[in-house]
Specification:
Helix content is 38%, strand content 13%. The protein is built from ten helices and ten strands. Helix 1 links the parallel strand 1 and strand 2.
Length: 313
Amino acid sequence: MGEDIRLDGKIAVVTGGGRGLGRAMALALVEAGANVIAADIIGENLDQVAGEAAALANPGANTGALAGVTADIRQSGDCRRVVEAAHAHFGGLDILINNAGLLPSYAYPGRFLDGAEPAKFWNLSDDVVQDVLDTNFVAHDRLTRYAVPHMIDKGWGRIVNVTTRLTTMNRTGGSPYGASKAALEMASEIWLKDLDGTGVTVNILNPGAAGDTPGFATPEEKRIATASGRLHMMHPDKMRAPAVWLVSNATDGVNGMRYDAVSWDASRPAAEQAAQHGRPLGFVLKPKAEGDGNEVRDDKPVTGTQAAYQAHG
């Protein structure tokens, strides 16, 4: 990284922490000194990431620890168990990274194959739609509601939500994945308003490109789509540097922002990268007609936090 940002003594929960983007962020937090609960529905993944975290603990490395919790965060009891595990293992909870999610391929397998037609939402089953919404939005809403009171009691906390680009949310064949991520995006804006003055911030960190994670696409789909230029894969490790910065003390006052990891240069100072690539979370507002008085949110890089954009609604 461009600088040594430390998280010593911080306690974090990372959902989907057993593989892909979640694994990369969980290990980055451990390396920076945080103690991490990695929650994942697949226990075998957690065994592997726990071993990787333990291997970081070389003499003098000053790393944190990681404990895995096998959990289906669609279930209320499992969400409570994840929060309780943070207290049982490490004595509290400061940081929540809502990363777990079902990918578009869950609803539309084979979508990157040559000749594949954009899927239509009316062809999806009720179960598939419910699974995606429950995993990508409802579970994170529930887990955040359970976690936030502990942060408020401390007067400090970090919530980082992983959503996606607007062009991914609203693309043809993108329902219900896009809708679930849009819900989390808007919830983030509401949460930060409700949390005003508590010391708990809410920001968004997106891959900004297709994360090269298990389940995103089959090897054959990736081969075909990347060769044709329809798909550009991003290594999960691109999430490491911006994730560590976003949950650190360095971001006191940074609230209501979104960052794309694919644009982040980890060799440069984090504050510089944030200034270049940060934007207020939420969506561009489209006026009904020219001169009707509706505001359009500025989509240029910004250096401040969303507080500077409240005039845009």
